[in-house]
Amino acid sequence: MSILDIEVQGDGTVAVVALSGELDISAVGRVEEELRQVEAKGPQALVLDLRKLTFMDSSGLRLVLEADMRGRRDGRRFAIVPGPDSVHRVFLIALLDKRLEFVDDPSHVTP
Question: Which of 46, 54, 58, 75 is deepest in the core (most CB within 10 A)?
Answer without folding.
Answer: 46
